[in-house]
Amino acid sequence: MKAYWFDNVEGDQRLPHDSGRAVDPSYLANLGVLYHHIISQSDVDTLAAQRSYKNRDEITVSPSVMGAIYEEKVKSFFHEHLHEDEEIRYILDGAGFFDVRSEGDEWVRIWLEKGDLIVLPAGIYHRFTTDEGNYIKAMRLFKEEPKWTPLNRSAETDANSYRKEYLTTRQSLAA
Questions:
Q1: According to the annotation, is 79 in a ligand binding site?
Q2: Is residue 7 within 8 Å of residue 15, measured between CB atoms?
């Protein structure tokens, strides 16, 4: 895992966009983003039990698997959005970027590769893209039935109860 401030320079979303300013994992934790490096499947199972994740599936994002819809899908994953559930991803192979909004509404870019697991809290604005390798295989974990409906950022999602709860929780921790 490598975390840093996104450079906001125009260009392919799959490029590193590294500003050269690193972000410490403790800052990610303050945003509610949890990171683990997982060594074995039993470590995933232990974490799943601790956090009450009951279901899981796997997704492979690559041109060879997705064919003609790959470019469209990668672009859709990169739209800024939130979820009403935690988003949990364990990287089984390949690599990609999760960008999350800071409290100052800037992007923090998190590069993940095989063995990395990330938990994004419900209500945090984020986006995802593969890196230049155009390949990632990830396990998705869910507390209930698989649900990954993105709610794209808008005035409506700014007023979403999960977004409001996320902001309230972050403010309480900062105080």
A1: no
A2: no
* Token pair belonging to 90: 């364990």
- Please check whether residue 104 is in contact with residue 142, taking contact to mean a CB–CB distance below 8 angstroms: no
**Cα–Cα dist 115/133, whole Å:** 17
Q: Are 144 and 53 in contact (CB under 8 A)?
A: no
* Amino acid (one-letter) located at 51: R
130: amino acid identity, one letter: T
Q: Are 55 and 107 in contact (CB under 8 A)?
A: no
- Amino acid in position 155: A
- Residue in the block written with tokens 């470019």: 71
Distance CA 140, CA 29 (A): 20
Secondary structure (DSSP) of 49-91:
HHTT--EEEEEEESHHHHGGGHHHHHHHHTS-EE-SS-EEEEE
pLDDT in tens, the chain (175 residues): 999 999 999 999 999 999 999 999 999 999 999 999 998 999 999 999 999 999 999 999 999 999 999 999 999 999 999 999 999 999 999 999 999 999 999 999 999 999 999 999 999 999 999 999 999 999 999 988 877 789 999 999 999 999 999 999 988 776 6
Q: Is 83 annotated as a binding residue?
A: yes
